[in-house]
UniProtKB/TrEMBL annotation:
The keyword Lyase does not apply. It holds the Pfam family FAA_hydrolase. InterPro entries: Fumarylacetoacetase-like_C, Fumarylacetoacetase_C_sf. Signal peptide: none annotated. PANTHER family: ACYLPYRUVASE, FLUTATHIONE S-TRANSFERASE. GO terms for molecular function: acetylpyruvate hydrolase activity; isomerase activity; metal ion binding. Residues 29-228 form the Fumarylacetoacetase-like C-terminal domain. Keywords: Isomerase, Metal-binding. This is 5-carboxymethyl-2-hydroxymuconate isomerase.
Length: 229
């Protein structure tokens, strides 16, 4: 054990990269809220292009496994399926026209949410952390480098539970596009290589139960399949 630390530092979370044995080390996980108009409506909000807002999950919340453990302290856990942007470069105050230069690749993932705890926090005006940033709350796929995907601006988003269609949308329905999200985030944070951005979910979010099979894909990017255990 190194003498530089009082205990052994934890292993750094990472994601597999298609076509290479190397892995993508994760720095931070940013999530944008209500970035599809229909989802904003189903959550009881105005779908107009209001200023975007973001929250974070921990890198340790990322799950790379075929099983999603149903979390404690909740009886109402929801899926939110979305495209993920992985940054290979960092920066501050990045102009929109240069924002995509920071992107390493794309993937898909789930912003799993303890909806009952989030709703309670909203009602009390408190942060969402216990509802959003719990263990295993960010299941993610492999990452696909830009060289293989380009920069997707449109593509069907489909998510099923036990084979039943639950979410369907298209990347072109994002209120704030990928480059805009990167640029805006860079005003408030110094973006770093290894940052992930979860770009928002279409309408159709809902609860899952133990034993359910969750499966989704973004056209031109990749897919993800998990069992709730």
């Amino acid at each position: 054990m190194s003498e530089d630390y009082v205990f052994q530092p934890p292993h750094r979370p990472s994601l597999p990269v298609r076509g290479t044995p190397q892995r993508f080390p994760i720095h931070r996980v940013y999530c944008i809220g209500r970035n599809y108009a229909a989802h904003a409506v189903e959550m009881g909000h105005d779908p107009d292009r209001e200023p975007p807002f973001f929250f974070q999950k921990s890198a340790d919340n990322v799950l790379v496994d075929a099983n999603f453990p149903y979390p404690d302290c909740s009886v109402d856990v929801h899926y939110e399926f979305e495209m993920i942007v992985a940054l290979g470069k960092g920066g501050r105050d990045v102009p929109v026209e240069r924002a995509l230069d920071l992107v390493f690749g794309y993937g898909v993932g789930l912003d799993m949410t303890r909806r009952d705890l989030q709703a309670e926090a909203k009602k009390l005006g408190r942060p969402w952390d216990v509802g959003k940033a719990f263990e295993h709350s960010a299941p993610c796929s492999e990452l696909v480098p830009v060289a293989l995907t380009g920069h997707p601006s449109r593509g069907e988003i489909v998510f099923r539970v036990n084979g039943e269609l639950r979410q369907r949308g298209d990347l072109d329905q994002m209120i704030w596009k990928t480059a805009e999200q990167i640029s805006i985030l860079s005003r408030f944070f110094e973006l770093q290589p290894g940052d992930l951005i979860m770009t928002g979910t279409p309408a159709g979010v809902g609860p899952i139960q133990r034993g359910d099979i969750m499966e989704g894909a973004v056209e031109g990017v990749c897919g993800l399949k998990l069992k709730v255990v």
